[in-house]
């Protein structure tokens, strides 16, 4: 996995490849105004990237739903509420100023509640935080504060409402209730010393359960020895005035916890333990309102980890599995026998990591899934989990791009399936899935020379060998080429490009260069130590050179004869190369991070109109973040005006030569 790049932008002066540093501007080096960008111009970025987290999913019917979005890269840590009225086809953003929402719930199309931190500060390292309960009566447009208080950050946030008047809020171990729609909230006392409720489930305002833990120590031991915890389930039938213990089990200290508790009616329910000591969670079941609990399943809890328990009927239930940092596979667990047996639904890509589910029936449901290092996305099923469709954000490429003109292009991968081929006819505004390689092939790179002819480089799932596929019908069908390029690994490919129906090149990071002159049927290999490079033919190309030391010197070399590289000079004395693209022998673009490997690293776009002899440089807005998992950021221009940058945050597009970029 390549170095993840944290990028924001500052003012950067003109850079010469013949030794001039960035502290001064030589008027002789300024490039004539042939592109839209001219020396000194800054760059603007519109829209929002797709690096964010989604949580607190809540649908009240098949069309109307809400989900909380928190931008991971935002310095303000404010939440947004996304609302859909068409089942997820389109979404409206409802921004909450100075609020970091952790949970929301609606009882109808207008009335809902939200709970979360009262300010936008990052309180990860704080022991307590000011929490607010918010209320809306217009579907989420406006919110009023109903309650606020300082609570210890010991566990999560949960809401449950029976109607517009009666409900409960469990806020980091503090249980609150209301009987007047939230105008007044009162704390519910469970009556057991040192008990901390972690999860709750109510079937009506009077009848409910909480699961939590009791911290205690064996009195026969010294205070610093043999600490223990007890997991407890409590039950109330009078709205929390009185509680009865139904289940208790001792655990070693620090290991006990609960994942969730869920009742589908007044008698049938489940709770899932969390035992970090053994990494095995236990699913317990009751059919008599908790008078008797029996263990019916055991689920391993160490990456992937179960996140919640959601049953739709006494037989049908779901448990999402979160992989965390990856790269292991998680899934979405489904039971149809009340929790005795589970199966994993969805393919490995689209259901690899999941945190939340929300089903309004056995057939209609949504799930919050995660693409490692690329953010969260929302999937919908209308057939009980047999098939899934990505409904947020809109589909866009995640692995590679290849545009054949300003409007028409192809992309590899999407958040919900890394093996799909995408196509756009509007410059990247919208993309549609036209082919899926996932069953037999793991695609990595692609190159199209026109709307019909293209190639994809990747790995066979059966043999793990490098494979090249070719299409002549715009991606509708693909033919494997009978080639032997065993020296090349598609996981380390910095350049894969065809220039016309016959001529193409592969640069394997870092030592082998493959060339073909017969459309990919045969390849000639040469040993050249190349890293980030751009070619406009088999004979002519440019390479960014990096010293890899501190400070990290970056230079540029050019090849004109297919064999010999000539140094053009130094670009920066302390930077990290990100991407490069030349569209002709004169015009090219480079992305750099500067200074290299620093928390305050800045990125700049360099532009040349004389083959790389001189460059103008331009700043992006401060706070812009661009990251990649590959050897280089895919950057492509089709002419002076139209270009794209693909990163793990999304797809950036420009229509004015790089002066203005938009997140697609």
Radius of gyration: 28 Å
Describe the biggest sheet?
5 strands, antiparallel
- How many strand elements? 55
Put simply, the count of helices is 0
The strand line-up of the biggest sheet is: 1-51-50-49-48
Rounded to the nearest angstrom, the distance between the terminal CA atoms is 25 Å
Question: Looking at the structure, what is the overall shape?
Answer: elongated
Task: List strands and helices in order, with pairings.
Blueprint: E1 15-16, E2 44-46, E3 52-59, E4 65-71, E5 79-84, E6 92-95, E7 100-106, E8 112-117, E9 128-136, E10 144-152, E11 157-161, E12 167-171, E13 174-178, E14 186-187, E15 195-202, E16 208-217, E17 227-236, E18 244-252, E19 258-263, E20 269-273, E21 280-286, E22 294-300, E23 305-306, E24 310-311, E25 317-322, E26 331-335, E27 343-345, E28 354-359, E29 365-371, E30 375-381, E31 389-392, E32 400-403, E33 409-414, E34 417-424, E35 432-436, E36 441-448, E37 454-460, E38 466-471, E39 479-480, E40 493-498, E41 504-508, E42 510-516, E43 524-530, E44 532-535, E45 541-546, E46 554-559, E47 565-572, E48 576-582, E49 588-594, E50 602-608, E51 614-619, E52 635-637, E53 643-647, E54 650-654, E55 660-663
Parallel strand pairs: 2-55
Antiparallel strand pairs: 1-51, 3-4, 4-5, 5-6, 7-8, 8-9, 9-10, 11-12, 12-13, 13-14, 15-16, 16-17, 17-18, 19-20, 20-21, 21-22, 23-25, 24-25, 25-26, 26-27, 28-29, 29-30, 30-31, 32-33, 33-34, 34-35, 36-37, 37-38, 38-39, 40-41, 41-42, 42-43, 44-45, 45-46, 46-47, 48-49, 49-50, 50-51, 52-53, 53-54, ...
